[in-house]
Amino acid sequence: MIELDGTSLTLDQLVAIAHHDEKVGLTAAARERVRAARAVVDEFAHHEEPTYGINTGFGNFAEVTIPADQLDTLQVNLLRSHAAGVGEPLPVPVMRATMALRANVLAKGFSGIREQTLDLLIDLLNNGIHPRVPSRGSVGASGDLAPLAHLALVLIGEGEALASWTREGLRGSESGADALRRAGLQPIRLASKEGLALINGTQASTALLGLAVAGAERLARAADIAAAMSIDGLQGSTKPFDHRIHDARAFAGQSVSARNLVELLAGSGINAAHANCGRVQDAYSMRCAAQVHGAAREAFAFGRRIFDVEANAATDNPMVFADTREIVSGGNFHGAPIALACDVLCLGLVQLATISERRSERLVNPALSGLPAFLTRHGGLQSGLMMAQVTAAALASELKTLAHPAGADTIPTSGNKEDHVSMSMSAGLKATRALELARIVVAIELLCACQAIDLLSPLRTSTPLARAHDFIRARVPTIDADRSTSDDLARITEMIASGEVERACAVKVN
User: Fold this and answer.
1) How far apart are CA 455 and CA 477, in angstroms?
2) So which residues are the catalytic ones?
3) Between residues 295 and 52, which one has the greater pLDDT?
């Protein structure tokens, strides 16, 4: 059980909630803060003077005062009208992360939500009720209004929930009312400000950022393994990874990658066999692997820093300050930090993928590798890994289009009240897609590098790389005759995503 207090949720915990169905609860201190903020909202709800979000309309209707007997209807109407999303639904891990993040923000006690409403949100998460939330429709302005409105509708027994979902895809949906009934839960009747409290925030965008950061960090470790195996397969030098070179530049990410490469290549019989080959310098895709991978790591570190702050930040509007009994309007819902972090993440992923594709090209090109053309002993009759590299090139090119920053765009919405928007959701979706593509590009490099290691037999690679090679070969046999490599790549991509490749090395890859 992960206890939410609004201040200490970590990325590792979010991954456990999203991918491993970890359950959550609320700390006693969080409950006290929620009750205190709600008391202030109840007090303001009985005032005659207008207070935004409590007895007024929303956005361009902020000047319209709502009668006291229609305040509950106002909140329901808000959810219904704002649930205007389109497109394929967000995957279950993203939904679980979104729900946990929203619950954590509400636990800070600046939202004015009732304790029982927050408890129901947590009950949905713990009972595996995952609202069906279309992925498109948010500009990251007053937060992720459309996605969070679709989520919140299930709390009142409306909207849709995913009836069944596997890692491969959707298996239908059911009404929000049926989903609650199946879990033995009762829908909530919203009180003043609660609809707004449920949808004002960046949690859908932040969920995408957090899960993409976690995946990118894992991919960086796999990319170091792939690079080490390629460098050995290409009979490259380990001298460029001398710690003194990297200490002299002092980028943390670069130094980490260099240490990984040194440890992964230590004791390689292949490397020892060409120690005095006379080659002066390797190509940049080998020699500068630590510098490029390190730059990607710096991008991912920036994304993690932004996530760590935003995951535990109050992103509501208006905000309730229980200690001074004030309700103040502001703009913490603006997704600019998230958009920027996701865009930087994409740039880091492009760096990993493009240098990986260049190493794959060197492996299959006999003029550069010294290995049989396209890594087959039967060239002409067989094409070997010719098209695998073409696929890597296609994906690397697509990744370059994803590197264009979504956050550079803005378009006025809501009657020009929202005259500068962040596009954080677009940036998050783009980062998610970039991660998926970059994983495959690195998987292609691993496929090619394993084949190169096979062709260099009886020379043996290092012990850590041999373990990774053997682990991959247990599921993806050596290519002795042409076959479709699509399934091979799917298996290796899953090994990267699950962390199995790095664990197979049996040395710590940072």
Assistant:
1) 13
2) 52
3) 295
Q: Is residue 510 part of a domain?
A: no
| Beta-carbon contacts of residue 158 (< 8 Å; ≥ 6 apart) | 79, 80, 175, 176, 177, 187
Torsion, CA 289, CA 294, CA 299, CA 303, rounded to 10: 120
SS (H, E, C) 367-393: HHHCCCHHHCCCECCECCCHHHHHHHH
Q: Are residues 215 and 196 both part of a single domain?
A: no
The end-to-end CA distance of the chain, in Å, is 27
Q: For the chain, give the number of residues.
A: 510
- Answer yes or no: do 462 and 426 share one domain: yes
> For residue 356, how many other CB atoms are within 10 A of its CB?
31
In a domain? residue 87: yes
**What gap in Å lies between CA 304 and CA 217, rounded to an integer?**
9
CA-closest candidate to residue 101, choices 301, 303, 313: 313
Would you call 412 helix, strand, or coil by DSSP? coil
Structural domain span for residue 365: 210-323+334-504
Select from 201, 219, 246 the last residue of a domain: 201
Q: What pLDDT shows up at residue 110?
A: 96
Q: What is the CA radius of gyration of the chain?
A: 26
- How many domains does the structure of the chain reveal? 2
- Tokens linked to 251: 């980028």
Rounded to whole angstroms, the Cα distance separating 41 from 57 reads 16
- In this structure, the answer to whether residues 143 and 41 fall within a common structural domain is yes
Residue 161 lies in a domain: yes
Cβ-proximal residues to 183 (8 Å cutoff; 6+ apart), any chain? 123, 124, 127, 128, 129
CATH number for the domain that contains residue 241: 1.20.200.10
Mean pLDDT of the region 432-436: 98
Per-chain mean pLDDT for the chain: 94
CB 405 within 8 A of CB 427: yes
Task: Please state, in angstroms and rounded to a whole number, the distance separating the CA atoms of residues 411 and 384.
Answer: 49
Alpha-carbon span 445 to 451, nearest angstrom: 10
Q: What is the DSSP string of 317-351?
A: SSEEETTTTEEE---TT--HHHHHHHHHHHHHHHH
Tens of pLDDT, residues 376-403: 999 999 999 999 999 999 999 999 999 9
Alpha carbons 466 and 268: distance in angstroms, whole number: 9
Q: DSSP letter at 190?
A: P
DSSP state for residue 283 in the 8-state scheme: -
CA 394 to CA 166: how far, in whole Å? 28
CATH number at residue 78: 1.10.275.10
